[in-house]
Amino acid sequence: MNHNSKPLSHATHHDWYQSLISTSDSILYTYTTAFHGFAAYLDPQEAESLRNKDAVLNVFEDRVYSAQTTRTPQFLGLNSSFGLSDGRRFEEIEHASQDVIIGVIDSGVWAESKSFDDRGMPEIPKRWKGKCMSGKDFNKRLCNKKLIGARYFLRAHEKQVSGSNHVGVISPRDYDGHGTHCASIAAGSPVENVSLFGYAKGTARGVAFRARLASYKVCLGSDNCRGADVLAGMESAISDGVDVLSISLASKPEQHYLDPIAYGALFAMSKRIFVSVAAGNAGPRKSSIVNVAPWVMTVGAGSVDRDFRAYALLGNKQLFKGMSIYNGPRMGSKLVGLVYHRGKNSSSNFCLDGTLEPALVHGKVVICDIGGIGSVEKGLVVRRAGGVGMILVNFVSVKELSAESHLLPTVAVGKKVGDLIKQYEKTDPNPRATLGFDGTVVNVQPSPMVADFSSRGPNPVTPQILKPDIIAPGVNILAAWSEAIGPSSLKLDNRIVKFNVISGTSMACPHVSGIAALMKAAHPNWSPSAIKSAIMTTAYNIDNTNSPIRDVVTGSSSNPWAYGSGYVNPQKALSPGLVYDTSDEEYLKFWCLFLENPNPSCSRKFSDPGELNYPSFSVLFGSNSIVQYSRELTNVGQINSTYKVKVTAPSTVAVTVKPTKLVFKSVGEKQRYTVTFMDKKDKKSNLKAAFGWIVWSNAQYKVSSPVAVTWP
């Protein structure tokens, strides 16, 4: 408004503005300082009539500003306003997600966290059958319209530890932090101005921040989850009416019929519940991938474009960058002694308890290799021996991505930098160093990268199914935390925080769970396999330097055994064009391949697991030099659309796709194609694996499937 145009007949600007519109309660705010005017809830015709008044300078429609988590929604493109291919706006999808319920199978929940605040949320969906259970330190009244369920299933654990001194807290309460962290990543309410000791400062919010949450406690501690309890929790969640199951748990790979998560997830899928699972943290070891059933979304971990920078300044004036979260007393600019692997104990390089000699490390910065015990615990070993700082070397990776909340001044570096620092300590007659901390840095390049800990393929159970399916943000993720345990999870750590930064495929999994919730809101009639396909076929594998996504272990290009179909791209996933919609019957034909005693429903089964209508390909050449698979695509994009295929094949494989063009006249129409893979590898070659892509595309959509080829 031109505020100087206020008629004298109106005592205040508010009175004047009120006179311009017909409904007395339409005005929401009157602005008088940074902006002169008002906000009102108006129909389009009334807004247009205002535009024609002389004193009105401008009229514009309000827009949604998505809160920034601390970083991952922005990195995923979920903080911006964008449109779907059917004309809807993303804000409509976010609003609709308040009817979607995510069940988190984990270590419970810290219900008092502001991440579970229900202000502004409508009533709980009437279809919800779940409940809140009271228990020690947990009152069922802690549940609300955001956290709509909290149960615990710990009978197997109680039975296992009966007779011991410690059974654990039998209630929905999270004493570990892991369950609270995962739940808030998936669907936590926006919480402004949060950080961990000033690191990652911003607004923390879940991916689907309007969705509902239900917590199912099946673990007493991160490493204490019983399969029977897990399955009981999954069964309850299915009966309660969840739409998405988020399971950041892992065990050793097993045949599907021996795996409680695989078994429970198959039933969940038949009830149209999407199941997201963690790929495991045993990387970069080959075939370390877990949770590999084809009816679950197996999620690996990648980085985002944010670092928590620290540095080591050496006596030769070289400065090396690393990572750390540290809020204690700083070392200052004075250089002190630097020591690595000195003394009689052959394990002193790992800084295990009792391996450091105080006479050699007192008052010095100690170089420690990862392994044996946790990194924060190594810092305590150094401190007890008299050390004043630690340089932590990840000898597995070229650079260090993960930061931990240290109790001693610590800088974590990768192998490349670590080797240079070790060489300086070894060759300089008086090696010295000091450590410093630069805080949070964003727009880091290259990003994303595959995390070193993220478990890798090939699939050890069914190698004809490519796993992981996808990677998502899983490095240095800030989210809600239990106030019953310190940020390092060590008993000696008495710091209390409301938000914590941790890394793992456990953090990547709920990101995809949240994305699935948004997709459920956008496409309520889609099957779990259609949602999964959309997420996979729209993922990307090019980083922010326009290069192929790198593996932090090698610093060079990664491959589908590490990232599956690529890094998740929710904007594209909401409008995929085509999907591989796998039927329940096909999953049953796959399942029956592995049953020792097939039941009557197993009258038909695949001859090859790779026959499943899956969005990726894993080809095994053995006795056969030719492998042929068929796939079926369903049109969820535009009518009268045509797609052409592009094949990127390794030189050692001939790939033929028939037909090369698919024409869809209507939405929901299905078309099949066949791919023939022919082995061209030289018999003398030692090549064990190669990778490629099959991409169906037109001007609007790109539907990509990775191909992994393996020779015995």
What does this protein structure show overall?
With 712 residues, the protein is an alpha/beta fold. It folds into 4 domains: 1-63, 2-Layer Sandwich (Alpha-Beta Plaits); 72-305 and 449-574, Rossmann fold; 311-439, Glucose Oxidase, domain 1 (3-Layer(bba) Sandwich), CATH 3.50.30.30; 615-710, Immunoglobulin-like (Sandwich). Helix content is 20%, strand content 25%. The chain is built from 16 helices and 31 strands. A 7-stranded parallel beta sheet has the order 4-7-3-8-9-10-19, sandwiched between helices. A 7-stranded mixed beta sheet has the order 12-11-17-13-14-15-16, with helices on both faces. A 5-stranded mixed beta sheet has the order 24-31-30-26-28, covered by helices on one side. It is globular. The relative contact order is 0.11.
Secondary structure elements and pairings:
Layout: H1 13-20, E1 27-31, E2 37-40, H2 44-51, H3 72-75, H4 90-96, E3 101-106, E4 147-152, H5 155-161, H6 178-187, E5 191-196, E6 199-204, E7 212-217, H7 227-240, E8 244-247, H8 260-270, E9 274-278, E10 297-302, E11 306-314, E12 319-323, E13 336-340, H9 358-361, E14 365-369, H10 375-384, E15 389-394, E16 410-414, H11 415-427, E17 432-442, E18 449-450, E19 470-473, E20 477-480, E21 499-502, H12 505-522, H13 528-537, E22 550-551, H14 560-563, H15 570-573, E23 578-579, H16 584-591, E24 617-620, E25 626-635, E26 641-648, E27 653-658, E28 661-664, E29 670-679, E30 689-697, E31 702-710
Parallel strand pairs: 3-7, 3-8, 4-7, 8-9, 9-10, 10-19, 13-14, 14-15, 15-16, 18-22, 24-31
Antiparallel strand pairs: 1-2, 5-6, 11-12, 11-17, 13-17, 20-21, 23-25, 25-29, 26-28, 26-30, 27-29, 30-31
Helix pairs in contact: 4-12, 6-12, 7-8
